[in-house]
Design brief:
103 residues; mainly alpha; Helix Hairpins; 5 helices
Length: 103
């Protein structure tokens, strides 16, 4: 099986019949970024998922989600064309941290 690219997951959700429900979006998100992939990315880091998102241990789900949204917007590759490789790496770390903390 070929290795999935970071952005290939966006192709897994069919929008031909509209955007669907949030439950379907969550399912598509989990398909493109599994817990094992997230653990592999975070395992290579010196930071914990909490440190990556800049939150304290015991943060609520809403605090985790708020931190994730702010950071993923800040580090989105489309907004950081001048440092594309760094933005992609940070986006992967941020998504991995959120994937582990939100499950």
């Amino acid at each position: 099986m070929a290795k999935k690219g970071f952005l290939d997951g966006y192709k897994t959700y069919d929008t031909s019949q509209g955007y669907g429900s949030s439950k379907k979006w969550r399912s598509a998100f989990n398909e493109r970024f599994s817990k094992q992939e997230a653990e592999t990315i975070i395992g290579n880091e010196k930071q914990t998922p909490y440190q990556i998102l800049g939150i304290k241990h015991g943060a609520t789900k809403s605090e985790i989600k708020k931190a994730f949204r702010a950071l993923v917007t800040e580090w989105h590759p489309d907004l950081n064309q001048h440092r594309l490789q760094e933005a992609e790496e940070m986006s992967k770390k941020i998504i991995a941290a959120y994937s582990l903390l939100s499950k």
